[in-house]
Design goal:
about 290 residues, Spermidine Synthase, Chain: A, domain 2, Rossmann fold, 5-stranded antiparallel β-sheet, about 25% helix, about 30% strand
C-alpha cells in the first residue's frame, strides 16, 4: 500500500468502509495475524489487524474511556483489574487513572502488536509502562481459566471474533471470567456493531445473562468502527451501572462523563430487541467479522 491508496474493510456484500492512507508505517505477518500501522488522511496513525481498523489517534479516546471508565466507576472500589488484549495500551492508560486501582494484569497474546504500538502509537502505548501494569505476553484464555476470585474488574479489549480472539466470545470463557472475579466483581467486553453484528450481540447477551445476575449492554459512537455505533456487554455479580452514588472522574476526560455513563445504557428499541430470547436477528456479519457460535 503506497501513498493515496485506500484501506478497505468489507462489512457485507453491499457495504464497505474505506480510508485514504497517506503511508504505511509498519507491516508484518505475526504468528497470529497480519499487522499494519498506517497513517490515515483524516484520523492519523492507526493500528490495523487482519485488514480491520482497531484504533486511531483521531478517535481512540472514545473507545478507551468507555471500555474502562464505565465498569471502573460502576464498581465502588476497584483495586485489581485484568485486561485481556488491549495491546495498544489505551485501555491500560485509562484504567491507571483510577487512584483505587493498585495492580493491573494485562495479558496480550501478540508481542508484535505491543512493540509496534510502542513505536508508532505512543499516545496509547504509554499505558503499557505504567508502574501499576503487569504486562504478560500470553494467552488470555489460559490466564483467566487458572484464576479464582482475584479481580474486581475484567476488561476484554479484544479484536474481532476471528483469528486469536475467537475463544473470547463463548460460554466457557464467560464462565471462567465469572470464576476469576471477586464476589462483587464485574466485567465488560466489546461486542462490535448492533447494525452489522446483531447475532453476536444477541448470542453473547443470552449467554452472559445466564451466568451474571446483572447483564447490561451499552453503546457509544466510534467514527472509525463499522456503522459508527459500537456496543459493549457488561456482566456484574452485584453492582448495577445505574446505581446511585457512582463515582465521578477527578481528571479531565474527552468523552466520558457521569451523564454519558447513564445515557449509554438507554438502548434504542431496535437494539433492545436484540436482547429478547426469541429474537432471530439477521446474520449481517461480513466475511472479515464472522461471529462464531457462542
Amino acid at each position: 500500500m503506497s501513498r493515496d491508496e485506500w484501506l478497505i474493510e468489507e462489512q457485507t456484500p453491499g457495504y464497505r468502509t474505506q480510508w485514504r492512507v497517506r503511508r504505511v508505517l509498519h507491516e508484518e505477518q505475526t504468528p497470529f495475524q497480519h499487522l499494519q500501522l498506517v497513517e490515515m488522511e483524516d484520523f492519523g496513525r492507526a493500528l490495523v489487524l487482519d485488514s480491520a481498523v482497531q484504533t486511531t489517534v483521531g478517535d481512540e479516546y472514545i473507545y478507551h474511556e468507555m471500555i474502562a471508565h464505565v465498569p471502573l466507576f460502576t464498581h465502588p472500589n476497584p483495586e485489581r483489574v485484568l485486561i485481556i488484549g488491549g495491546g495498544d495500551g489505551g485501555t491500560a492508560r485509562e484504567v491507571c487513572r483510577h487512584s483505587s486501582v493498585q495492580k493491573v494484569d494485562m495479558v496480550e497474546i501478540d508481542r508484535a502488536v505491543v512493540e509496534a504500538c510502542r513505536r508508532y502509537l505512543p499516545e496509547t502505548a504509554c499505558g503499557l509502562d505504567h508502574p501499576k501494569v503487569n504486562l504478560v505476553i500470553g494467552d488470555g484464555l489460559a490466564w483467566v481459566a487458572e484464576r479464582r476470585g482475584e479481580y474486581d474488574v475484567i476488561l476484554v479489549d479484544s479484536s474481532d471474533p476471528v483469528g486469536p480472539a475467537v475463544g473470547l466470545f463463548n460460554r466457557a470463557f464467560y464462565e471462567n471470567v465469572y470464576r476469576a472475579l471477586k464476589p462483587d466483581g464485574l466485567f465488560v467486553a466489546q461486542v462490535l456493531s448492533p447494525f452489522f453484528h446483531k447475532k453476536l450481540i444477541h448470542d453473547v447477551y443470552q449467554v452472559v445473562a445466564s451466568i451474571f445476575p446483572i447483564t447490561m449492554p451499552y453503546l457509544t459512537v466510534v467514527p472509525t468502527y463499522p456503522s459508527g455505533l459500537h456496543c459493549f456487554m457488561l456482566g456484574s455479580k452485584r453492582h448495577s451501572p445505574l446505581r446511585q452514588g457512582v463515582r465521578v472522574p477527578s481528571w479531565p476526560t474527552r468523552w466520558y462523563t457521569p451523564a454519558v455513563h447513564r445515557a449509554a445504557f438507554q438502548l434504542p428499541p431496535v437494539v433492545a430487541e436484540l436482547l429478547q430470547p426469541t429474537a432471530a436477528p439477521e446474520h449481517a456479519e461480513g466475511p472479515c467479522h464472522a461471529a462464531p457460535t457462542v
